[in-house]
Design goal:
By secondary structure, the chain is an all-beta fold. The chain has one helix at 286-289, and strands at 2-7, 35-37, 43-49, 68-74, 79-86, 95-100, 105-110, 115-119, 126-127, 134-140, 143-150, 155-161, 173-175, 186-193, 196-201, 209-215, 220-226, 236-243, 248-255, 262-269, 279-285, 300-301, 313-316, 320-324.
């Protein structure tokens, strides 16, 4: 894979309080930096903080009061919108990820204030769940899901948030039956079908890394887990994928390292239940792929429509990068 394009994100010395905000991330805060593609419309969503780069890590002190920012990338034009500067989510509460269904309606996951709803361009958000360690949000088949570790009720897996895509009211968070209430550490997830979901688990031992869960009609069970790494076992923080009509699955995942991490590609099939049958390849090493110091790969998502054709993925690091496989 080769770098095809970079898309800059605003980073002014004095963060603006209106219009497009700065959007920076913690850099070494590996839990942040999710990147998601909408299921209707050419949009991607990502999150950060309205502060200049080079400042202390975000969301780690009670004095952190800057806006939590949702960025929207329009893949048809390459334009980035960072006008969504959310107040009231400060202190030690980190913003972890966002998902937009249509470029307007947006749900966010936070580290201490649960799942929230907002719209692009807003300055406020609506709490849908109680305070909890939510990590990623996504919508599949019209249902809002979150990945959560701990919280109330105790969850260490993937859970539904209410029914459909709620925008107000206190919603019930229900873990998918069969997922554990302890031991796991889920981040990103990708529904390959209504009966197969892949989960990125950031632990470095046990049933961690790339997890595949299957549904038999009443409960979900772990089909396999796969740790990656050229030297040591590595978990995953970010994950995306696609499925063709024959049931072939292609996945991309960024490892959990806080610096100089890796992007992996995986090939699987919907029916497979053994990690021995999964093809895994290291695609990008952050330490050698980019010039400069301290590059990290964070969110990964597949671009359906981009300003230049034939791109297969978008990786969030300090800005947005388009990575294309040359044929």
């Amino acid at each position: 894979m080769t770098l095809a394009q970079t898309i800059p994100i605003q980073n002014l010395a004095t963060p603006p309080s209106t219009g497009n905000r700065n959007l920076v991330q913690g850099g070494t805060a590996a839990g942040e930096g999710a990147l998601t593609a909408s299921n209707t419309g050419p949009y991607m969503a990502f999150v950060g903080y309205n502060r200049p780069s080079g400042q202390p890590l975000n969301g780690n002190a009670t004095t952190d009061t800057e806006d939590r920012v949702v960025g929207r990338l329009d893949l048809s034009t390459g334009l980035v919108d960072t006008t969504t500067g959310l107040t009231g989510i400060g202190g030690t509460n980190a913003i972890r990820g966002a998902f937009t269904t249509n470029g307007t309606d947006t749900w966010i996951a936070t580290s201490a204030q649960g799942v929230r709803y907002t719209t692009i361009g807003s300055t406020t958000s609506t709490a849908l769940t109680g305070g909890s360690n939510d990590r990623r949000v996504s919508v599949f088949n019209g249902q809002l899901y979150t990945s959560r570790m701990s919280g109330s009720p105790a969850i260490d897996g993937i859970a539904t948030v209410g029914t459909g895509t709620p925008t107000s009211g206190t919603q019930t968070v229900t873990e998918l039956p069969g997922f554990p209430t302890a031991t796991n550490s889920p981040y990103d997830f990708f529904f390959a079908s209504s009966t197969v979901v892949y989960v990125a688990d950031d632990r470095v031992s046990g049933t961690a890394g790339l997890e595949k869960w299957t549904f038999n009609g009443s409960t979900w069970s772990l089909a396999f887990s796969l740790l990656t790494g050229p030297v040591n076992n590595k978990g995953l923080k970010s994950l995306t994928g696609s499925v063709d009509a024959s049931g072939n699955v292609v996945l991309f995942g960024a490892t959990t390292d806080t610096a100089a991490n890796f992007l992996y590609g995986f090939k699987d099939t919907l029916s497979n239940t053994s990690s021995a049958n999964v093809v895994s390849n290291q695609l990008v090493a952050a330490s050698t792929a980019f010039t400069g110091s301290a590059w990290n790969l964070r969110g990964v998502a597949l671009a359906v429509t981009v300003p230049e054709p034939a791109s297969i993925g978008v990786i969030a690091v300090g800005g947005l990068l388009l990575a294309r496989r040359r044929k």
